[in-house]
Amino acid sequence: MRLYGVVGWKNAGKTGLMERLVTEITGRGFTVSTVKHAHHSFDVDHPGKDSFRHREAGASQVLLASRNRIALMHELRGAAEPTLDVLLTQLAPVDLVLVEGYKRDTHPKIEAHRAVTGNPLIAPNDPTVRAVASDTALQVDLPVFDLDDTKAIADFILQEAGL
Predict the structure, then answer these.
(1) Angstrom distances, CA of residue 63 to CA of 11, 27, 51
(2) Which residue intervals of the chain are DSSP H helices?
(3) pLDDT tens digits, the chain, 163 residues: what are they?
(4) Domains of the chain with bracketed CATH
(5) pTM of the full structure
(6) CB distance 51 to 73 below 8 Å
(7) Residue of 107, 112, 108, 116 whose CA lies nearest to 147
(8) Scanning 17, 75, 84, 159, which has its CA 20 to 30 A from the CA of 97?
(9) Structure letter (DSSP) for residue 145
(10) Residue 146, beta-bridge partner list
(11) How many Cβ atoms from other residues are within 10 Å of residue 57's Cβ?
C-alpha cells in the first residue's frame, strides 16, 4: 500500500484537506483509506449501547457489524499505543492510505498551514515534508500549493506515490 501524510499544527486545515483529497482521489477511480491520529482520548461508542456495555464489562475487542458497516474497537487497557506500521496491517489493501497526523513518522507528507494560527512551519526541520499547502505565500525550498487547490495537491500526492 502506498502511504501519504497530511500534517500541521492545530487548526491548520488538515481535516478539511484530508476530506477534499479523499473526494478528489476516489473521484479519479482510486481506492483510499485514511488513518487519523488523535492526541486525546476519544470514543466512537455511546454509554448505554450494547457495544459500550461490552467494553465496560472488560472485553478487549468489540466488533460491531451491520449490513452497512463494521467497526472494530480495541481497548488498550494500559498497553502501549500501536505504531502506525502496526495499525496499517489492520487495513484492507487499497491504492492509497492518507494519514492525518503521525508527524514524527517517516512516510512522505504535505504540511497544511494557515497563517492565522501563528504557528511556525514544520517543513524546514522535517525532511519527510515534501510540500506545503498554505493560505498565504511562503518562502520555503519546497513546492507550495494554495491550501484550497485540492486538484493540484492531489496531482502532487499521486505523482509522489507513483499512482
Answers:
(1) 32, 30, 8
(2) 14-27, 50-56, 84-88, 150-161
(3) 899 999 999 999 999 999 999 999 999 999 999 999 987 677 778 888 888 889 888 888 898 889 999 888 898 988 999 999 999 999 999 999 999 999 999 999 999 999 999 999 999 999 999 999 999 999 999 999 999 999 999 999 999 999 9
(4) 2-42+80-161 (3.40.50.300)
(5) 0.91
(6) yes
(7) 112
(8) 75
(9) E
(10) 134
(11) 8
Reading the block at residue 118, the C-alpha cell is 501563528
**Which amino acid makes up residue 24?**
E
CA-to-CA distance for 56 and 29, rounded, in angstroms? 41
Residues contacting 49, CB < 8 A, separation 6+? none
Round to the nearest angstrom and report the end-to-end CA distance of the chain. Answer: 11
Strands (E) across 10-140 are located at 32-36, 61-65, 70-74, 96-100, 109-113, 129-134
- Alpha-carbon distances, residue 50 vs 9, 54, 65, 71, 153 (angstroms): 36, 6, 12, 13, 42
Instruction: Find where cell 492545530 sits.
Output: 10
